[in-house]
Amino acid sequence: MNENKKFNLALLLMFVLVLTLGAYLFLSNKESSESETVDMSQEIPMSELGSVYDPVIDEVDSENEYQGRVLAGGDSPFIEFNKEDYDHALASDKIIFLYFYAKWCPSCKAENRDATIPAFDEYSGENIIGFRVNYNDRDTDDFEESLAENFGVLYQHTKVVIQGENIEIYPNTWPKEEYINKFISL
């Protein structure tokens, strides 16, 4: 009976140790991802992006016709991502706004519905072209994967603003007002 108590005590101690180690790893991972979120609003020169910034230089269609489905906006449209429209946007003088979106992500759906689309519909400027880029879901193609990798996108709902040689990365969700303020500041 004494052996049985020792075995049960050893088993209990191992369980507590595993549980403590698991909690430590979970919390340390959470803290590191929070610090990444804070540090990711950054500017990156276009020259550091390698093959992503290698647009097919064609004339941009003067009638603003796009290959992708226009989700919102007028003179500054928000379009479902496709490489052809992205290449045309890179060849233009417009500011490019990329929103990395996953169909399975509830916060992406809410932000897209309540903030991104209404902000593009409300914005009256002509200097921005936005793209909803598939991220980490079944609709994501190889080019979208490489785009996310080259911009260092770690999370869905990340936003990337490309303005000439400058790139800004924003990993947090935004309300509509923050989109509008960002658009106006560009």
Q: How would you describe what is shown here?
A:
The structure is a single chain. By secondary structure, the protein is an alpha/beta fold. The chain has two domains: 1-39; 46-185, Glutaredoxin (3-Layer(aba) Sandwich). Helices cover 45% and strands 16% of the residues. The protein contains five helices and six strands. The protein has helices spanning 2-39, 83-91, 106-122, 142-151, 176-185; strands at 70-72, 78-80, 95-101, 128-134, 159-163, 166-170. Strands 1-2-4-3-5-6 form a six-stranded mixed beta sheet. β1 and β2 (78-80) form a beta hairpin. α3 (106-122) crosses α5 (176-185). The longest helix is centred in the first third of the chain and has 38 residues, at 2-39. The protein is elongated and about 80 Å long. It starts with a helix and ends with a helix.
Q: List the helices and strands in order.
A: HEEHEHEHEEH
Low-confidence stretches: 30-42, 47-63
Largest sheet: 6 strands, mixed
Which oligomeric state applies? single chain
Separate helix tally: 5
Net shape: elongated
CATH superfamily placement of the largest domain: Glutaredoxin
Strand content: 15-25%
Number of strands: 6
Radius of gyration: 22 Å
> If strands are numbered along the chain, what order do they take across the biggest sheet?
1-2-4-3-5-6
Terminal CA distance reads: 76 Å
Total domains? 2
